Amino acid sequence: MIEINGLHKAFDKNIILSNLSLTVEEGKTTVIIGRSGAGKSVLLKCIVGLLTPDAGSIKINGQEVTQLNEKEYNKIRKDIGLVFQGGALFDSLNVEENVAFVLNEFMKLDKEVIRKKVKDSLALVGLKDIEKMMPAQLSGGMKKRVSLARILCMEPRIILYDEPTTGVDPITADAINNLIVDLSRKLKVTSIVVTHDMASAYKVGDSIAMFYHGQIIAQGSPDEVRVTKHPVVKQFIHGEARGPITDGEHLVFGHTK
Ligand SMILES: Nc1ncnc2c1ncn2[C@@H]1O[C@H](COP(=O)(O)OP(=O)(O)OP(=O)(O)O)[C@@H](O)[C@H]1O
Ligand SMILES: [Mg+2]
């Protein structure tokens, strides 16, 4: 479904993605884990065409997308929803207008049909009667769910989630995990989930990929990852501040001899 090969992206001299390859199977959920600032959001933005990679290939349903112009990419975007890390809601629009934004912009639908779609997608994320509220009146977790509802009402075949459970309480996080699993099972949505939350990674992932130094350095099923001997993956999943990820990167805390 999504095939990435030799992807390269740098901002000036700051190399973020370097010869990155990743295959995401149709109907499956691939989780990407990796440290803050490593480049996971950059990778997702390259996939949806918000950033243009410097080199390499991204194929979506067999179609090379890195060379497409804006108009051609828009056709593909209808099929791919990116749930932004911070929600990215429009502050001046209420919840209903935010969720309906893309429907209003790109699809010629009856107002009542749009209203129902908005209501249904809000219900899917466990929110109701908040259509007239403004983003400033919502909690962080609610904003996250509203931004997810905005993607759901587009009925995309591919959903990219950027840290969907970060900053929400464990119960809401679990509800979001269940939703990701449900969408994958019932609607056969293909998903990429970027997360630091290992409980979420194990729960939603068919496959877990470790992002490190601009590449995917290891990938396996949750069961394989749980017992991995790979030093970088092991350090990450156990959250240890000393080890190959941090040593030598001037991020070593604690005592030094
Ligand atoms: N548009 C941009 N212009 C310049 N640098 C950028 C841009 N977007 C991202 N970066 C840089 O790319 C690096 C990776 O950022 P990115 O947001 O992908 O990290 P991340 O892995 O998603 O981190 P986190 O887990 O904290 O969200 C950072 O050093 C960031 O400053
Ligand atoms: Mg990020």
Describe the structure.
The protein has 257 residues and is α/β, with parallel strands linked by helices. The chain has one domain: P-loop containing nucleotide triphosphate hydrolases (Rossmann fold, 3-Layer(aba) Sandwich), CATH 3.40.50. The chain has nine helices and ten strands. The strands form two sheets. The protein has a six-stranded mixed β-sheet, with helices on both faces. It has a four-stranded antiparallel β-sheet with strand order 2-1-4-5, with helices on one face. A hairpin with a 2-residue loop joins strand 4 and strand 5. Helix 3 packs across helix 4, helix 3 runs parallel beside helix 5 and helix 4 crosses helix 5. The radius of gyration is 19 Å and the shape is globular. The C terminus is likely disordered. Bound molecules: adenosine-5'-triphosphate (ATP) and magnesium ion (MG). Magnesium ion (MG) binds next to helix 1. Magnesium ion binds next to helix 1.
